[in-house]
Amino acid sequence: MIAYEIRDSFGLENLTRVERETPEPGHGEVRVRMRAVSLNFRDILMIRGHYNPRQPLPLIPCSDGAGVVEAVGPGVTKWAVGDRVCGLFAQDWIGGDPTKDKIRTTLGGPLDGTLCTQRVFPEHGLIAAPNHLSDEEAATLPCAALTAWSSLVTYGDVLAGQTVLVLGTGGVSIFALQLAKAMGARVVVTSSSDDKLEQARALGADALVNYKTHSEWHKEVVAQVGPVDHVVEVGGAGTFDRSVRAVKVGGTVSLIGVLAGPREVNLTRVLMQNIRVQGILVGHGDGFAAMNRALAAHDIHPVVDRVFGFDEAVDAIEYVAAGKHFGKVVVRVD
Question: Count of CB atoms within 10 A of residue 80's CB?
Answer without folding.
Answer: 10
